[in-house]
Write a structure and sequence with these properties.
By secondary structure, this protein is of the alpha/beta class. It has helices at residues 9-21, 78-85, 104-112, 129-141; strands at residues 32-36, 42-47, 95-100, 117-122, 144-147. It has one domain: Cytidine Deaminase, domain 2 (3-Layer(aba) Sandwich). The structure holds 5-hydroxymethyluridine-2'-deoxy-5'-monophosphate and zinc ion (ZN).
């Protein structure tokens, strides 16, 4: 008899997005993303971080102050990193698991790459223009999005 308490696909891929987020140096919001093909094969992963060559220790991580002294102009979003990290050339019809609802800029990139479904965890910026614009484009482009249905299972990894 097979074991019955194995995790489902959604938990598996969201788990990988959550683990990827643990690599983020952002002190406020860690974001992880996992892109998966229609037949449940992992295509790519990413998390929010500074671009290559832009030191995590030298670039700012603050949220407020002079815009050039905040993280916002520099940090590469998790979804964009996942798209850019993809080594193949076709992700049409794929899904993306993300720990935070994608912003408008990432939504554009996801649409253009042919992503058809977004499974997200937090939607903490739902009231912002950025997310409203994102949903407007995703709706128009026929990209389906749904919140991850938590199975409340805790997985402890000993490293
Ligand atoms: O879709 C996203 N993907 C993503 O990776 N991020 C990153 C950029 C920042 O490092 C962080 C957001 O920072 P904060 O919550 O402090 O404003 O999350 C932010 C969004 C935004 O909405
Ligand atoms: Zn984004």
């Amino acid at each position: 008899m097979k074991r019955e308490d194995y995790i489902n696909w959604d938990a598996y891929f969201m788990g990988i997005a959550l683990l990827s987020a643990e690599r983020s140096k952002d002190p406020n919001t860690r974001v992880g993303a996992c892109i998966v093909s229609e037949d449940n094969k992992i295509l790519s992963v990413g998390y929010n971080g500074m671009p290559m060559g832009c030191s995590d220790d030298e670039f700012p991580w603050s949220r407020e102050g002079n815009p050039l002294d905040t993280k916002y102009p520099y940090v590469c979003h998790a979804e964009l990193n996942a798209i850019l990290n993809f080594a193949g050339n076709d992700m049409k019809g794929a899904k993306i698991y993300i720990t935070l609802f994608p912003c408008n800029e990432c939504a554009k990139a996801l649409i253009q790459k042919g992503i058809k479904e977004i499974i997200y965890m937090s939607d903490k910026y739902a009231e912002t223009d950025i997310v409203i614009a994102s949903k407007r484009m995703l709706d128009a482009a026929g990209v389906n999005y749904r919140q991850y249905n938590s199975i409340n299972k805790e997985i402890i990894l000993s490293l």
